[in-house]
Amino acid sequence: MRSYIPGKNLLRNKFVALMETNKNRLQTMALSETTAKLEHLLHTLSKDLLKVYRGNKSAAQRVRVGTLRLEKVGKQFRKESVSAEKNGKFRKKKVRKRKR
């Protein structure tokens, strides 16, 4: 036998709304974290590439491993950016036509 809880539907609706806003915040936060990861990986790869040109063999190994990591983070960024764009997190800039 179920007991009656007054305002149960109201509480459920508030909970669902709260979860949706938190989900949107997490997506935005996750996207910024992924962007930071990408920047860090690119920075370290560029430093190691300079060392490879000088003949450092261990830097070459780090570059090979780094490219694999870059691929994974790049795929993750693509997924997150597409979902953020669908949810309206990104707005496309309007292109102004120049007057001649």
Please describe the topology of this protein:
Layout (H helix, E strand, L loop, with lengths): L7 H46 L3 H30 L14
Helix pairs in contact: 1-2
Describe this protein's structure.
There is one protein chain. By secondary structure, the chain is mainly alpha-helical. The termini are far apart.
- Provide a count of the helices: 2
Termini Cα gap = 77 Å
Which whole number gives the mean pLDDT?
A: 78
Shape: flat
Which class best fits the helix and strand makeup?
A: mainly alpha
By DSSP, the count of extended strands is 0
**Poorly predicted tracts of residues:** none
Order of helices and strands: HH
Helical fraction equals over 70%
| Biggest sheet details | none
The proportion of strand residues reads under 5%
Q: Give the radius of gyration.
A: 23 Å
